[in-house]
Amino acid sequence: MNDLQKWIRIRKDLYLQMERQVRHRLGEDTPELMHYRKAYTREFSKKWQVSSKEALWEQVDRSSVIMIGDFHALHQSQKAQLRILRHIAPRRKVILAVEFFEAADQDKVHKYLAGQMSEKDFLKAIDWKNDWGFPWEHYRPLLRWAQKHKAPVYGLNKSYKKKSASTLHSRDVFAGKIITQLVEQNPEHLVVVIYGDLHLASSHIPQEMEKGLGKAFSKRILRVFQNSEPIYFQLLQKELEGTTDLVRLSQNVFCLMSVPPWVKWQNYLMYLEQAYDLDLAEDDDDEDDEVLDYTDHVGRYVKIMAEELGVDVSLSDLSVYTARDTAFWSQVRENYDAKKIKWIESMISEEMSFYLPEIRAAYLARATVNHAASLAMQYVRASLSSAKRLQGDMPKDFLSLIWLEGMAYFGSKMINHKRKTDTLADIKASLASRTPVDLGKEALQLALTQKMHELMVITGVSRHKMQARPRKKESYLMAATLLGGMIGERLYSGYRKKQISEMTVRKFLSKSVEDESFNIAYYDLMEVVESLPAPFHSKKEKL
Fold this sequence. Notes:
By secondary structure, the chain is an alpha/beta fold. It has 22 helices and eleven strands. The chain has an eight-stranded mixed sheet, sandwiched between helices. The chain has a three-stranded mixed sheet with strand order 9-11-10, with helices on one face.
């Protein structure tokens, strides 16, 4: 088995494992539901071609209806919807029609968008938690966009007590009628529909629209699916998965490829487990009751990384905690002084995931694939380098912190290669758009100054002095995250293109940041990193 086939096998196994676990939690599909799903699967059996965002924007301009798929538990799915909305020409009037609101709540939706209801009262009034349940904060930006552009929002959903393939079809009929009415009553508007991917199959909602609007109108409907598993693995076999963000299935059908399949399903699994854990917490007043343990999720990634890199890493020292774990806080207070506790609290407030080698505790800030994967690599690196202490003495440990963040980001790319970091160009653009009092400007300036200092040292100006000295210690955290992301992005790109070997990666991971000489060694390491080509100029280039 060659390296590519090994890489594919590891990730395909992970995807199938994640999907099975989600299906098990949701319940096995009935024959009727499998039949409904087949219509969706057939969409991706056709020939496709790699496409570009320019081709998508051209089709957006030609369309009267845009249907964008939604994978409800995946935040990247809603981010993609927002990116498409932001690209619609300002001259066009837009109506937003969404699955996540019920048509029966239309009056409440109008009142909320008009500022006549608070967000808290609105969510309670529409019973968001029970009727939809997916994270509200993922969908909120879509509504902020609608408010800003004065775009009315309409609910397309209808609740049924019994959920089956027949109710899915009934919902398609119901949504199709509402969309048809919106088009007929507002012929000068562009109607943007956000609905679950399965419902976008041509024989589902589009067919219902065709009944009311006529077959000729179907050419004016643009459909954008998201993250098809069959297409992803075909791209993977051709080694195009890293450079392809969009494929075209037909003149007016695209599929956006923003995350690998295992990330999509792992996020769903984590969402289901988290939701179940919160339900238990609400049903049980016992504060000592156990909280959800993410050790298995992180441990799974540790195994994948260790197998791919050819290293032995024991899971015996891996214990994953979250902010709800009282045992974590007890260990921190018992083993760290006030200064280090304050640093740990700063990392938590910045939503950083981290590993504390002194107490062998891994802290997971968010239940997402990116955080779990970066934490897994932090554990791998700590094991290989025999790490013994927290890096929190700033500015002395600043370079060590940058390197740790770089290795962690590299690990997250091993699991989610679609992840993108800020570049030097992005930092400069962010600085240019901020006022002197903006939150985070000091960290951006520190990151830019450090990067320019690195380039000066690497190119031979050894006596160049690092000028920036931030007033806030937290600025070091944000700057290290930005700079580490750039390191990890370049390293992963070089690793996948075989510009650096597994042996080199192992040496990088085994390098102790606790040695007094590390601040010198760091620039030698950066010379290797900077010799690798940057994979992109700005993350804004990516769809």
